[in-house]
Automatic annotation (TrEMBL):
Protein name according to UniProt: Cytochrome c peroxidase
GO molecular function list: peroxidase activity
Superkingdom of the organism of origin: Bacteria
Lineage, uppermost ranks: Bacteria, Pseudomonadati, Bacteroidota, Flavobacteriia, Flavobacteriales
Coiled-coil spans in chain: none
Signal peptide positions on this chain: 1-21
Gene3D superfamilies assigned: Cytochrome c-like domain
Keywords for the protein's UniProt record, in alphabetical order: Heme, Iron, Metal-binding, Oxidoreductase, Peroxidase, Signal
Organism of this sequence: Flavobacterium nakdongensis
A Pfam family: CCP_MauG
Amino acid sequence: MKKQNLLLALFSSFLFISCNKDDNYETLPTDSYPNVIATFGTNLDLNNLQNYANQTVPAYITKDNSNGNVITDKAATLGRVLFYDKKLSTSNTIACASCHKQALAFGDDAIASQGVNATTGRHSMRLVNNRFATELKYFWDERAANLETQTTMPIKDHGEMGYSGLNGDQSFSDLIVKLSAIGYYKELFKFVYGTETITEARIQNALAQFIRSIQSFDSKYDVGRATAPNDGAPFANFTAQENQGKNLFLTPPTFNANGSRTGGGLGCAGCHRAPEFDIDPLTKNNGIIGVIGSAGTIDVTNTKAPSLRDLINPSGTLNGRLMHTANFTSLQQAIGHYGNINIAPGNTNLDPRLTPGGIGQQLNLTNTEVQAVVAFLQTLTGTNVYTNTKWSNPFPN
């Protein structure tokens, strides 16, 4: 009887501990993951996961496009491995991280990114703060319905990662067979999903969770916004120039019948909405209609843009060129473009906010105004996203 009572007590204690521990992942002996340990060493500790699920998000950030695929520490960890794994390409030379580099706020400094068979048709977007946007569609032309769908499209692209199933390429099913034979994926998929089975949906969910976890809210702007009643109020930690730039960014312009600005600001926030600085889903073409490597062709379908956060890095240099054509190499050039909108022949999709009265807007910018807006945009840069190990390459160099 005493033995039964002892066993009952031990069982009850086990239930209590099991029900009250962090149920986001299961703690197992380290030797349960021999392939993970052999491959990643101390770079990946499944018994001590990085915090992806419960990161601090400022109270003034209200947008979240997780769309039911809520971030967990387990799946985001798997997503990190997938994001950096070059085995997801047919040549074992290209990973998602090849075109989206942590040092550049997960953007690229190349005009077009190199794939296994070709370069990308458009400049690669920065991925920082993807979760905090209203727009659910992805790619510059919004051809992917959501981030989950987007994550495997480059993998299935002939030029980018090569598993297209066309033009002699292997198919995505071949990739699943390939990954299923890798020891660390057997362990990671079982760790996350309970079985070793690899599917496209599981890959998509894990990659999307990792990408949505990449956030940047430690900028000078965030320090000021945390104590201000709203975005429009002066920020106590800003210089006069930075507050002027913020006011110009937020305030809509007024125009005369000729499309020339007569007052107000630049109205940037009409499309790039504070405090997330994401793109308005209703935004149309911004007047940039070029095609990389094709001077005689136009493309008016580009209507999405990344967040304006972390346009530059802490060193003060751009995190890659700007626009889908990568033809702007400075913030001044980008601001100047909006200051003098030219309605190019064939651009049937130009955003009407850029054409007051049907005429391309003329903001008549002064150098003082341009420099003020540049100063403000520089306040949107954080530091943590560039160095935090949870977003870094888990594979040994």
